[in-house]
Design a protein that fits this description.
By secondary structure, the chain is of the alpha/beta class. It contains 13 helices and seven strands. The structure holds iron/sulfur cluster.
């Protein structure tokens, strides 16, 4: 699809938007039938050495109240994910070198808990090729590293780093044989529609297996706290276009959609997403994890099961009625 067409469709509304979503759902059905992927996420640390202007976990906000889960906590939580019938264990955290050894240690233990049917997915920020190779050798299957924005200047102004380093890291992940995910934030201050169109194209050009889009959420205690949130329709149109341009991709309906509007995650599935992530972080750490601030929306098993059912998608959750 030409970039001009993508830019135009990003503004779709009314019947044109419904047609866009319908096309995205048709492509999802052709690739995946009516089966959705459910992931169980464990947030393992809120320490981060980066200083992204949109994120409450930025290093300028680090304090003594930060946490890192122990290996025992992570393994016990992975067992709860298994007991829920979920076979994708997703370890997520801020970017800190300490996670490499910790995660390399727990991955083989988590694998022992499952009967062969397991995907181990990581989202731990930029790491060196050697660190990524070590995690792969320890059993990691996938790694998510969102490019956030494809605009090098916007990237530098908001993340205080070079986009090229992130792209090099994505290339390392692909070369190491990871299933790789990337994605963008929609509605960043200073971001144009053309820039979002380039984000969509970059996701496809990189040859990644997963992609995502999340609306910008202004978080307290960040330089962007007073900015406007990303627009839900623009985010849903981005998601649908990601599906149309990259039909085989796994695309999550992220919790930030629900934060923007109740029913936002159902809208994401109806726009072509096929993944939902249930939060299994232990209660104390879940309450202090600072992404999007204290008022974030945490996806429970019950919410995920109900949302998938409303979207007409199948899942393998066993204990959705317990939450
Ligand atoms: S967005 Fe990620 S890398 Fe940036 S400060 Fe937050 S946790 Fe760290």
């Amino acid at each position: 699809m030409e970039i001009e067409k993508i830019i135009s469709l990003l503004g779709a509304s009314g019947d044109q938007q419904q047609e866009l979503f319908s096309q995205a759902r048709d492509l999802r059905r052709q690739q995946f039938g009516d089966q959705a992927v459910v992931r169980g996420v464990i947030e393992i640390t809120d320490s981060c050495r980066a200083n992204c202007d949109y994120c409450p976990m930025r290093c300028a906000n680090q304090s003594d109240s930060g946490f890192t889960l122990s290996a025992q906590q992570i393994i016990a939580t992975a067992a709860a994910i298994r007991d829920a019938g979920i076979t994708v264990v997703f370890l997520q955290g801020g970017e800190t070198p300490e996670t490499t050894d910790l995660v390399a240690k727990v991955l083989p233990e988590i694998r022992k808990l499952f009967d062969g049917d397991l995907q181990l997915l990581l989202c731990l920020g930029e790491k060196s090729r050697d660190e990524l190779a070590c995690l792969k050798a320890s059993g990691a299957d996938g790694y998510i590293l969102k490019h956030e924005t494809s605009d090098p200047e916007l990237f530098r102004s908001l993340r205080h780093r070079d986009l090229q380093d992130r792209l090099d890291c994505l290339k390392n992940l692909l070369a190491l044989g990871y299933q790789v995910g990337t994605g963008n934030i929609v509605g960043l201050p200073g971001q144009s529609r053309e820039s979002i169109a380039n984000d969509i194209l970059l996701s496809a050009q990189l040859g990644t297996h997963m992609t995502s889009c999340a609306p910008f959420i202004p978080a307290p205690a960040t330089p962007l706290a007073d900015q406007q949130a990303g627009d839900l329709d623009l985010t849903l149109n981005t998601l649908a276009l990601m599906r149309i341009i990259n039909p085989k991709a796994l695309i999550p309906t992220v919790s930030a959609l629900e934060k923007l509007r109740p029913g936002g995650q159902l809208a994401g599935l109806n726009a072509g997403a096929n993944v939902i992530t249930v939060n299994f972080t232990p209660a104390r750490e879940k309450s202090v994890y600072r992404i999007y601030g204290a008022e974030r929306f945490c996806v429970s098993l019950g919410h995920a099961a109900a949302t998938l059912q409303q979207a007409g998608l199948q899942h393998a959750l066993r204990k959705a009625d317990h939450v």
